[in-house]
Write the structure tokens for this entry.
Amino acid sequence: MAGNLTFDALKAAVADGTIDTVLVCAVDMQGRLMGKRFHARNFIDHSFEETHCCNYLLATDLEMYTVEGYAATSWAGGYGDYVMKPDLSTLRPVPWLDGTAMVLCDLLDHHHEAVPHSPRALLKGQIARLEALGLEAKMATELEFFLFEKSFDDIRRSGFRDLQPISAYNEDYHILQTTKEEEVMRPIRNHLYAAGIPVENSKGEAEAGQEELNIRYADPLACADHHTIAKHATKEIAWQHGRAVTFMPKWHHARVGSSAHVHQSLWKTDGTSAFFDADAPHGMSQLMRHYMAGLIRYAPDYTWFLAPYVNSYKRFQKGTFAPTKTAWSIDNRTAGFRLCGEGTRGVRVECRIGGSDLNPYLALAAQLAAGIRGIEEKLELEAPVTGDLYQSRRLKEVPRTLRAATETLRKSKMLREAFGDAVIDHYVRAAEWEQEEFDRVVTDYELARGFERA
Ligand code: ADP
């Protein structure tokens, strides 16, 4: 069985006993799959219409803590329910689990209206704005992560000490080293492909134990769905093989970080590229120039959606391919924005700022909002930059700390107009909480540095 499942095909698979479990999942603020495991019979007879979850799923932190300060939900509000409405177009087999299928849900309120701060709803909103302009986007996210020798449980029991990546050396493009990782990577590629996720390839990345997974570009909602399921599958398949993976952007200060680059292009409804103009410099249409100018101008506004935790900002170090400069270049990996597919129908822009911990729905929605604003304002694109941009003092940077990115998010008129004040206030609260918790906790670093010597 390969690819997405129709509802009828699911019914047939349940009837012949191939499928007995359906994972009914929503996406939380952190970009994780949350939901229930249904008996497949119950799903096809009843729950395919809807099921429910506690509305705190869009108001907790990574540890499921009930964070105070959200207008949308609280202890005072009684933490009620959301409707989980299965989007049957996302029904697919889960080949790495026995007898299992999966469906993604939209989150609705008691009136069956989309919950405005739900990640899928936010992305759908920006796709609708593009449609109104007669445009469609195609996007791709690259998933980078580290693979470790030991299992999640062993690593947790050892207090996250002595972490050994699966290889001993930088394995960028290495076939030999990645052969040794095929035990985990081959099932990831093959199971995802069989689940209807168009995997292009995996490759070794520029650090010991670092892998990258590339998925073929798709419309933004499919791209974010693919990213979310692929990340989830990577963790589960690593777990099945007694290994751990991490999507933390910076698991060690002496190691390279992990990113999630976002490739993007716009297309007309007749299927031709809205970014390509054969007669223009580099093949970049005027529309593409406005879109890119919007991406660059508003990068500080949406940085939090690319880097949502304290740790995210530790990835932004010189000489590590983690750019922070709000400038564009032609095929230069030190710029925040890189022109790819120059002079061809596949011309596109790659945003290199985001870390591997981004929530793809939020990151894509925020970047589309910035690009659309660039088109609406007919922003002029500056000339591309050249050379090592890490050395440039002239160029503007994105916020370099969670605190700074929270403030640019809070003050973003562009995002408030695109997403609504309530949504921005909600995510500002999520951002504040991450900082508040970090500020409260004493870290290993402080202890080792100060215990004796302070
Ligand atoms: P590189 O070798 O420079 O990393 P790839 O050809 O591997 O580039 O493409 C990187 C990502 O860009 C892939 O996920 C691919 O599907 C995606 N991509 C290719 N063309 C487009 C396009 N026109 N719009 C958006 N994404 C695209």
